[in-house]
Amino acid sequence: MQMLRDRSYVDAWRSTNGSATGFTDIWTHNGCGSPNGNLCKRLDQSWSKWIAPTGMSFFGLVTPGHEAPSDHAGIIVEYALPNPQTVAPAIAIDAPAENAVVHGTVGVQLPANDDTGIARVELLIDGAPIDVRTVAPYGFKWSASSVAVGPHVLQAAATDRAGNRVVSSPVHVTVVTEQQSGSGRRACSAINSSARRSVGECARTPVHQKSPA
């Protein structure tokens, strides 16, 4: 799957469900998996290159304790047929700033617009969608503690109602721990070698603080 992500293919599950987990596969039964009545893993996949899914539904699911109509449970993914006559959506990340040092909960601001209307906006971290919005405003609150300390790439993807999907220009950030982030200057000094920037540049880089409760 990583090979597909590296080539900019869109994982329908992540695009429609964000980071939520889910499973599709053969129902476990005597002699085939344990415990009985569970789904093994997320086996069913749907990937696309230039368009994003408009919806996902499931088949074969049952209430725990009830008989299943089939030995398999899976997904049905719907796609809109792109219209080449329409204008592709426009989207960009306004915040955080390029080369920002971040920690805690980071507010991600990304205006999006289109002539036919926006159907969905995805937040991508290192190329993988982690959250989805289908109604405006399209801001996100990203938990920087969910990724490793160090450099990361933020992007946003917008899909319009005609099925056209566009990915924004990348915004590069460096994640630090809250202990490292006591001040912008001290945090940058701690990660200066990996970020490959001078101390002077780091001192001018904003540290995005944790959002207040």
> What's the number of helices?
4
Shape, per Cα inertia axes: globular
CATH superfamily name of the largest domain? Answer: Immunoglobulins
Find the count of extended strands (DSSP E, 2+ residues).
16
Helix content: 10-25%
For this structure, what is the CATH class of the largest domain? Mainly Beta
Any key phrases for this structure?
213 residues; mainly beta; Immunoglobulin-like; 2 domains; seven-stranded mixed sheet; three-stranded antiparallel sheet; 16 strands; globular; disordered C terminus
Describe the structure.
This protein is mainly β. The protein has two domains: 2-79, no CATH class; 90-208, Immunoglobulin-like (Sandwich), CATH 2.60.40.10. It contains four helices and 16 strands. Strands 7, 10, 11, 13, 14, 15 and 16 form a seven-stranded mixed sheet that branches. The chain starts with a helix and ends in a 5-residue tail after the last strand.
Quick summary of this structure?
The chain is mostly beta strands. It folds into two domains: 2-79, no CATH class; 90-208, Sandwich (Immunoglobulin-like).
Helix/strand layout:
Blueprint: H1 2-6, E1 10-11, H2 12-17, E2 25-26, E3 47-48, E4 53-59, E5 72-79, E6 90-91, E7 100-102, E8 105-108, E9 112-113, E10 118-125, E11 128-133, E12 140-143, E13 150-160, E14 165-167, E15 171-175, H3 184-195, H4 199-203, E16 207-208
